[in-house]
UniProtKB/TrEMBL annotation:
Domain B12-binding: residue ranges: 106-227
Keyword entries, A-Z: Cobalt, Metal-binding
Organism encoding this protein: uncultured Desulfobacteraceae bacterium
Pfam families referenced in this protein's UniProt entry, alphabetically: B12-binding (PF02310), B12-binding_2 (PF02607)
PANTHER family given in the database record: METHIONINE SYNTHASE (PTHR45833:SF1)
GO terms for biological process, alphabetical: homocysteine metabolic process; tetrahydrofolate metabolic process
Name of the gene: mttC
UniProt protein name: Trimethylamine corrinoid protein 1
Keyword Metal-binding (UniProt): yes
Gene Ontology cellular component terms for the protein in this record: cytosol
UniProt-listed InterPro entries: Cbl-bd_cap (IPR003759), Cobalamin-bd (IPR006158), Cobalamin-bd_sf (IPR036724), Met_Synthase/Corrinoid (IPR050554), Meth_synthase_dom (IPR036594)
Keyword Metal-binding listed: yes
Molecular-function annotations in GO: cobalamin binding; metal ion binding; methionine synthase activity
Length: 227
């Protein structure tokens, strides 16, 4: 009988490979037809492996490894997306088996690509990663006007908001959102994250944002500092 440690190792490996199901190829060759994340997760559940163990010992460390691979240039954005999708599908299977203590959400996180900007790949990756960390993600999509972001923060009572921009011409919309959050009297309620190719720590300081993120994995590292 396969040992728990081996099962968790296989789950971890398949997340790193970006293989959701056995039909997927993965980064390495010759993996098609072999059990992947969904098959391995279901098997683990059938054997009674606690979902929390699967998350802590397989899913989380796998995404840490993917982040390292991205940082050193070994992985590209499609590889990150594939791995993030693996975690999302795994969590869908695990959710019905999680105890109330396991599924307690850490908070609400509003995400948006700001007005005038249609690029949202980076935001989508960040959303998947933040969700896998136990936060409720409210993704407003791209080209989102500042008033809609403010309204959603008020409606949900979100403690975090993430703003994304890929164009230098849309960076000013970030400043507008930060300013309107202050004008709305909710600045002390929310921690503001910003990210995107043209942004920087200097720009974050300039507009009064709390956290600058160079990529989705950096966002997770910074978010953990608030736990």
């Amino acid at each position: 009988m396969e040992q728990q440690a081996d099962i968790l190792k296989h789950i971890l490996s398949n997340v790193i490979q970006g293989r959701v199901s056995q039909e997927d190829e993965g980064v390495d060759e010759g993996l098609v037809g072999q059990p992947a994340v969904t098959e391995r997760i279901r098997h683990a559940v059938e054997l009674g492996i606690p979902p929390r163990e699967i998350i802590i010992k397989a899913l989380s460390p796998a995404m840490e490894r993917v982040g390292e691979n991205f940082e050193n240039g070994e992985y590209l954005i499609p590889d990150m997306l594939a791995a993030a999708e693996c975690v999302e599908k795994a969590m869908d299977i695990l959710k019905p088996h999680l105890s109330p203590a396991d599924i307690k959400e850490k908070g609400k996180f509003v995400l948006a690509t700001v007005q005038g900007d249609l690029h949202d790949i980076g935001k989508n990756i960040a959303g998947l990663m933040i969700k896998s960390e136990g936060y409720q993600v409210i993704d407003l999509g791209h080209d989102v006007v500042s008033d809609a972001i403010i309204q959603k923060i008020k409606e949900t009572g979100a403690a975090f908001v993430g703003l994304s921009a890929l164009l230098t011409t849309t960076m000013r919309a970030m400043a507008e959102v930060v300013e309107k959050i202050s004008d709305a009297g909710i600045r002390d309620q929310v921690t503001i994250f910003i990210g995107g190719a043209p942004t920087s720590q200097e720009f974050a300081d300039q507009i009064g944002a709390d956290v600058y993120c160079r990529d989705a994995f950096h966002a997770i590292q910074k978010l953990r500092e608030f736990e």
